[in-house]
Design brief:
The complex is a heterodimer of chains A (262) and B (325). Chain A is 35% helix and 26% strand. In chain A, α3 runs parallel beside α5. The longest helix of chain A has 16 residues. The radius of gyration of chain A is 19 Å and the shape is globular. Chain B has one domain: Orthogonal Bundle (MetI-like fold), CATH 1.10.3720. The chains are: A alpha/beta (262), B mainly alpha (325). Chains A and B meet through α2, β8, α3 and α5 of A and α9 and α10 of B. Chain B: It is found in: Cell membrane. Chain B: It comes from Streptomyces toyocaensis.
Amino acid sequence: MSAPTEQAGSVPMVHAKGVRKHYGRLEVLRGIDLTVRRGSVCCLLGPSGSGKSTFLRCINHLERVDGGRLTVDGELVGYRRHGGKLHELREREVAERRRDIGMVFQRFNLFPHMTALENVIEAPVRVAGVARAHAREEARQLLERVGLADRAGHYPSQLSGGQQQRVAIARALAMKPKLMLFDEPTSALDPELVGDVLDVMRQLADDGMTMVVVTHEIGFAREVGDTAVFMDEGVIVEAGDPRQVLVDPEQERTRAFLSKVL
Amino acid sequence: MVELKTPRDTAAPAHGHAADDLVVVPVRHHGRWVAAAAAFTALAGLLGSLARNDNLRWDIVGEYLFADLVFDGLFTTLWLTAAAMVLGLALGTLIAVMRLSPSPVLHGLATLFVWIFRGTPLLVQIIFWGYAAALYKYVMIGIPFTDITFFRAETNSLLTPAVAALLALGLNEAAYASEIVRAGIQSVDTGQAEAAHSLGMRPALTMRRIVLPQAMRVIIPPMGNETINMLKMTALVSVISAHDLMSNIQDVYAQNYQVIPMLVVASLWYLALVTLLGIPQAWLERRYGRGTSRAQHVSPLRRLLGGVARTTRRGSRVMNKEAGR
């Protein structure tokens, strides 16, 4: 493995340069340039079909990047540079890199045949090789952190949407990731349950976690986000301080979108 | 809201209802009683005639029902069923995964396997394996097109009737099981695999820990069917005299000509075994159904007793039926 030349502190957590992605002839991402600093919260906004979820999924290689360069913590996503060529990573190597990147999905995707606690300890025990007793102890702390200590023995079907999403966050945190990806984490929730999930995410941001969040929650992006990125039709239209981009945007397209959402 | 009650409840107003409660009179289904009586009469007549028919020879049935010969056959039928199902399910799962593989070669091979073993009659396959020695006199394992051989044996000594029966039933079952497993795997939401991958789980671990356990819920009921089918299909291997239950029964009636009584013996045993197979299936369904229903699990016995208890309290029967499901 080649050590990054820069100092670890100065390497951005996520760095995208001209990232492209297409499905057949449909171009979903048409050259994305983006930098997410360590410990910062980056919110991706935009109409559906703008490519924001696709870009998020590229970051942990659930989607393959077709062009440009995408690095996480200084390492290329999905490829290894060797002898002036990019070699596609093997499944084992891809899986290894994903360990450090937590992901939370719109539809929770909890494992329905496992209790909340079993969901949280699955990856630490099976992937990271943590002793079961130790993993259980850590899982209990994580569940307590998301306010669900008393739901450890419940199956996902016995939990509300908001509770399921908080278990999903605990599950992702159990691998001690250096980066958390959120793919519209509150879009499938009843309005009164959104607050609990956002509270947990806000807490996480306060603790210094680097986060990339695809969201329609303008309020959250404004309060918690360090950067707001507005995407449309596979390109970044506008990016910058959320209090600027989401309050007084420069671009007409951003303004039109915000007027519909707010 | 108007409170509804049955006559029995009003006879014992233990819960202190208001005086103007309305009484509900359930519909009387007279037609059902007539139909039930007619069906019972017909059934009793049929059973009576069977019981009194001297040609049925119940004495022969009794004589052979617990004969050693029958138990030997039963033993073969049981292990053949179990082994063929294990072979079928293991190979079937492999073929299902191959069929879902992005590799066109693996996909093609799996499709070819299913096409052949599902497309030819089982009876043909059984006879084929029984007589495979006529095709290849020796079985050799080595490197093709060279003289290097690791293993060599006479086909006849390897392919005993029992082995031929196991191969025929197991390979045929694998073709069907692969389609059931494939349907099960495809029934699992793709988000499950994505969530597992995002946690750093590799494809094989994801399949084993996340996808297959959820697929089991879809796989078990049809595989239960397949097991029951298999138990009965083992009777077909009597054509290569594999000494299963049916082979042994045939041997007896070939000598004493008591065909019907002997078939009754066989049928009683097949019925008994099929009935017993329902128990592990119910257990498996419960085990892999974990987390899918909000309601606490109620054992079949409890449900039965609960049902009895409910019918004694007719007043709340309708509402409990809704809640009890």
